[in-house]
């Protein structure tokens, strides 16, 4: 019997599965960790945390599966979008933490690009726009603020590429991760852009020469690593890709049509398209299958599950304690019971979920979160429902941008990620967007897509449509016409309130930044 392993490095946890080729998961494991936030709007992680979690989860799921090492034919690792990636020296030692997608420190680098670079030309080459979300602006931040580190850099490696190097001793970057860096990748030629790199002042040698498909074999497991993982030496390791795209694959999306919202720490809504379109303010990168032809186009909200976690941890200690004292009860279930008694629109409360600035379509690193419309009659249940609604409005904002450039979108929305466990949230999303909501019965998301890439890379499968037999879509919510009409009016307010408050948000951020500490230690 043949098996494959799929691993996804997420922002707050790593998950791994052992999959049999009929789609049965025979072992799974996860390991959690935190994001380092040494200053407001900063978000970074050291890659040894990821590597430790990858080794821990692979070893655990192999043990749980009881599968013989020789029957495991391949491994594939995907990862969160690592922004700039990990700057390493010639000995492949990390020189600085990875500035991940959530990090918003590179505002001055964005200003420099606007002043010194032909941005329209940059957008035409890369299919992407300009924001501190993109990895190339984070690279420039390191150049501007950490010159001693900049001089030592040998290469920048995305998280999955760095982990794959530790597993195999080989360096390769998948096209999906390369494209998501933004301003350094030629989306038409499917290679690093010498023109863009010259315009930005980023040395070409920083970009690894070996660009590969997501299902390509990077190398075989090193003997010492294989022993630690309980696998055979030289077990092939595939390149992988960005987790949102791999989760979209896990939902069975292999051609234009279906669209998927991945609701984890952040929200990523995306679809496959033959063309890129920076003008519609979304993000473009090669897809994880057919990566020389198809593009993954997505819009992303900076906080989704992170906003829910923030609300829970900041305001809901009584519910946290009650859940801890009641086996089998989750704190979010307690909060949803309170929110279920509140009608659509939270009785006049509107939440802006911009707790780490905002990505598409606003591209505003200085946007900030807000509750509006509160009165003495409002309760914690009102606020919790407003948080869920605010994130649903952010999803709709991206969907409306995507509809302008998509070749075709099916009249249904697939949702994957932790949010899919919530019946209330799925109904709110259906009512806000107007789309019937479907979710996967199997709660595996990106690791399932990784397993497909592993099986594809070692030749165990040839038809990617098999992934549709590995996961099962279930209808979760139909939009209610009256609630949808009400949310249409609230969505107009959602957009208008941001525009009205934007100047104040920026001024408040400037005042906060005046008290920031120095930016680069040492």
TrEMBL record:
Residues 3-249 form the Carbohydrate kinase FGGY N-terminal domain. Keywords: Kinase, Transferase. GO terms for molecular function: kinase activity; phosphotransferase activity, alcohol group as acceptor. CDD domains: ASKHA_NBD_FGGY_RrXK-like. InterPro entries: ATPase_NBD, Carb_kinase_FGGY, Carb_kinase_FGGY_CS, FGGY_C, FGGY_Carb_Kinase, FGGY_N. Residues 261-456 form the Carbohydrate kinase FGGY C-terminal domain. The keyword Cell membrane does not apply. GO terms for biological process: carbohydrate metabolic process. This is Xylulokinase. Gene3D superfamilies: 3.30.420.40. Belongs to the FGGY kinase family.
């Amino acid at each position: 019997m043949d098996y494959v392993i799929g691993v996804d490095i997420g922002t707050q946890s790593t998950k791994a599965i052992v999959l049999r080729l009929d789609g049965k998961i025979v072992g799974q494991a996860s390991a959690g960790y935190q994001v380092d936030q040494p200053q407001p709007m900063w978000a970074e992680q050291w890659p040894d945390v990821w590597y430790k979690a990858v080794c821990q989860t692979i070893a655990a799921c192999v043990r749980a599966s009881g599968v013989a090492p020789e029957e495991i034919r391949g491994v594939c690792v995907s990862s969160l979008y690592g922004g700039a990636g990990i700057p390493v020296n010639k000995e492949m030692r990390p020189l600085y933490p990875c500035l991940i997608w959530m990090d918003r420190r590179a505002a001055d680098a964005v200003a420099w690009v606007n002043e010194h670079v032909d941005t329209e030309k940059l957008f035409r080459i890369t299919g992407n726009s300009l924001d501190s979300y993109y990895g190339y602006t984070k690279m420039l931040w390191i150049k501007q603020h950490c010159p001693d580190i900049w001089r030592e850099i040998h290469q920048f490696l995305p998280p999955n590429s760095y982990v794959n190097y530790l597993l195999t001793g080989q360096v390769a970057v998948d096209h999906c991760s390369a494209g998501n860096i933004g301003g350094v990748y030629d989306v038409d030629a499917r290679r690093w852009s010498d023109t863009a790199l010259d315009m930005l002042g980023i040395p070409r040698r920083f970009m690894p020469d070996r660009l590969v498909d997501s299902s390509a074999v990077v190398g075989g497991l090193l003997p010492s690593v294989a022993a630690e993982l309980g696998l055979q030496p030289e077990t092939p390791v595939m390149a992988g890709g960005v987790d949102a795209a791999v989760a979209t694959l896990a939902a069975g999306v292999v051609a234009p049509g279906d669209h998927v919202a991945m609701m984890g720490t952040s929200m990523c809504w995306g679809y496959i398209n033959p063309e890129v379109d920076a003008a519609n303010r979304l993000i473009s990168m090669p897809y994880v299958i057919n990566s020389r032809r198809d593009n993954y186009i997505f819009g992303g909200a900076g906080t989704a599950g992170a906003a829910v976690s923030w609300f829970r941890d900041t305001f809901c200690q009584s519910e946290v304690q009650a859940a801890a004292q009641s086996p089998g009860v989750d704190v979010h279930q307690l909060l949803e019971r309170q929110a279920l008694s509140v009608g659509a629109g939270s009785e006049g409360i509107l939440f802006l979920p911009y707790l780490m600035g905002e990505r598409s379509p606003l591209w505003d690193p200085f946007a900030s979160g807000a509750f509006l419309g509160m009165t003495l009659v409002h309760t914690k249940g009102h606020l919790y429902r407003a948080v869920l609604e605010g994130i649903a409005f952010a999803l709709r904002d991206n969907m409306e941008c995507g509809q302008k450039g998509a070749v075709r979108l099916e009249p249904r929305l697939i949702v994957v990620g932790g949010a899919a466990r919530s019946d209330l949230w799925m109904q709110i999303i259906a009512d806000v967007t107007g789309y019937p909501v479907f979710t996967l019965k199997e709660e595996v998301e990106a690791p399932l897509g990784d397993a497909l890439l592993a099986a594809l890379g070692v030749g165990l499968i040839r038809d990617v449509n098999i992934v549709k037999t590995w996961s099962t879509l279930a209808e979760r919510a139909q939009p209610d016409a009256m609630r949808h009409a009400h949310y249409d009016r609230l969505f107009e307010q959602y957009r208008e309130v941001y525009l009205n408050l934007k100047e104040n948000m920026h001024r408040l951020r400037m005042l906060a930044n005046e008290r920031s500490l120095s930016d680069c230690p040492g």
